[in-house]
């Protein structure tokens, strides 16, 4: 990790007024992440130069990564909004609370139970409709 010392030190001395102690700036991240092998007579300072084309590719890759992260954050936000909306629906929460018990019931009995629940709901809807028609 000694090869980082020169990069970090030179940037710190050049940008001292911007450094607040919480961040470390690395000027040549690609050279650190993907070091090129040195030939026998080549020094490490000769490999740190980047061409404009390489810099463009790096910026495009960074932009693509940023777009991907933004899209992921949007998806996470949508999921959280859906969870919040589901949490405010008392009926849905009630039926979800019954799921562990429903899983223990054999399939043929489960079908009968579903039918009974639907009959109960239909009966309640008929009562509500009758009350509404009596009020008019």
From TrEMBL:
Q: Where is the BESS domain?
A: 88-127
Q: GO CC annotation: what is one? A: nucleus
- Where is the sequence biased in composition, kind Low complexity? 43-53
Superkingdom of origin organism: Eukaryota
Q: Name one GO molecular function term.
A: DNA binding
Annotated InterPro entries:
BESS_motif
- Which key words tag this protein in UniProt? Nucleus
Query: Where in the cell?
Result: Nucleus
Which protein are we looking at?
BESS domain-containing protein
């Amino acid at each position: 990790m000694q090869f980082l010392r020169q990069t970090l030190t030179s940037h710190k001395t050049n940008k001292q007024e911007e450094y607040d102690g919480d961040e470390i700036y690395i000027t040549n991240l690609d050279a650190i992440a993907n070091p090129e092998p040195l030939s026998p007579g080549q020094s490490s300072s000769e490999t740190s130069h980047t061409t404009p084309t390489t810099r463009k590719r790096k910026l495009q890759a960074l932009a693509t990564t940023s777009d991907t992260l933004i899209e992921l954050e949007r998806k996470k936000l949508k999921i959280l909004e859906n969870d919040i909306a589901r949490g405010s629906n008392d009926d849905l929460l009630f039926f979800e609370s019954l799921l562990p018990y429903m899983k223990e019931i054999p399939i043929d009995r489960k079908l009968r139970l579903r039918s009974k629940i639907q009959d109960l709901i239909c009966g309640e809807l008929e009562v509500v409709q009758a009350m509404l028609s009596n009020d008019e």
